[in-house]
């Protein structure tokens, strides 16, 4: 009698299969493993290429990104430096233009001052000569001075002989802050000499102004002289200079003024020389 499990298989119409060949199974298994291995190697190579491409792409992207950032940073720095450079250049240009305008104005003022000093020296020399004559004669000789010449002797006594020029402008201009940046040796040396001469002449002018007021007060005590001073031209009576010469106050004022005017004749040429040197230095700076 057949076994139960066989009978059940037959009942369902199943055929009994022979056991597989063991070598065939091993061969198939080996082949499947090699195929799988080949597929795996191929997939790995493909994946490695993909990974390498992605890595290279990321590396290249990062490199490009950093290069772009570096380039932008360099451009920003160069732009800032260019802006500072342009600003500094513009400031220097403005300072140069301001300095040039100041120097041109000073040069014009110096030219006018040169002419004024020349005229002032001539006036002071003429007045000083008449003062010397007045001081060298006595009252009797002074009384013999013709009426036509009396005004020439009175003028240096009652005239202040202070400078009437544009030195106020030059003082302000030469003290300008712009000139402190001008490092020109000739200009600096001439400026020192100019200021020294100006200081000396300022003291002389102050003394002359004081003597002028004293002289007017003393001359006003002489009626004939007082009438002459208010007339234009002076209408002086004959022999009036005798009483003027005999007045000790007027004689003292005339003597002091004579000394001051001689000092003027010493320092005015020094001022003129200093201004001429300043003018040459300024012209040299402007020509550069």
Features:
disordered N terminus, mainly alpha, 82% helix, single chain, 288 residues, 9 helices, rod-shaped
Sketch the major β-sheet: none
Q: Compute the average pLDDT.
A: 76
Low-confidence sequence ranges: 1-18, 23-28
- Radius of gyration, in Å, reads 57 Å
Note the overall shape: rod-shaped
- Based on DSSP secondary structure assignment, what is the total number of beta strands? 0
Helix/sheet category: mainly alpha
- What percentage of the residues does DSSP assign to strands (E)? under 5%
Helix content: over 70%
For the terminal residues, how far apart are their CA atoms?
139 Å
List SSEs in N-to-C order.
HHHHHHHHH
Summed up, the helix count is 9
């Amino acid at each position: 009698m057949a076994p139960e499990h066989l009978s059940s298989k037959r009942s369902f119409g199943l055929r009994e299969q022979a056991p597989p060949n063991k070598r065939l199974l091993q061969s198939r298994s080996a082949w499947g493993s090699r195929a799988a291995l080949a597929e795996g190697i191929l997939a790995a190579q493909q994946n490695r290429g993909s990974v390498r491409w992605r890595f290279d792409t990321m590396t290249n992207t990062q490199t490009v990104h950093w290069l772009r950032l570096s380039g932008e940073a360099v451009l920003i720095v160069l732009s800032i430096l260019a802006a500072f450079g342009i600003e500094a250049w513009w400031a220097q240009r403005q300072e140069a233009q301001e300095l040039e305008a100041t120097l041109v104005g000073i040069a014009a003022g110096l030219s006018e001052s040169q002419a004024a000093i020349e005229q002032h020296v001539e006036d002071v020399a003429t007045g000083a000569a008449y003062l010397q004559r007045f001081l060298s004669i006595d009252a009797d000789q002074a009384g013999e001075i013709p009426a036509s010449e009396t005004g020439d002797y009175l003028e240096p006594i009652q005239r202040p002989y202070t400078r009437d020029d544009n030195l106020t402008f030059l003082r302000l201009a030469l003290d300008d802050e712009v000139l402190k940046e001008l490092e020109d040796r000739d200009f600096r040396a001439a400026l020192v000499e100019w200021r020294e001469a100006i200081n000396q002449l300022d003291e002389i002018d102050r003394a002359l102004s004081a003597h002028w007021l004293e002289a007017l007060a003393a001359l006003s005590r002489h009626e004939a002289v007082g009438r002459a001073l208010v007339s234009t031209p002076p209408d002086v009576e004959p022999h009036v200079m005798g009483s003027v010469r005999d007045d000790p106050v007027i004689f003292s004022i005339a003597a002091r003024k004579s000394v001051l005017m001689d000092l003027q004749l010493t320092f005015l040429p020094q001022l003129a020389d200093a201004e001429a040197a300043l003018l040459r230095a300024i012209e040299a700076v402007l020509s550069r």
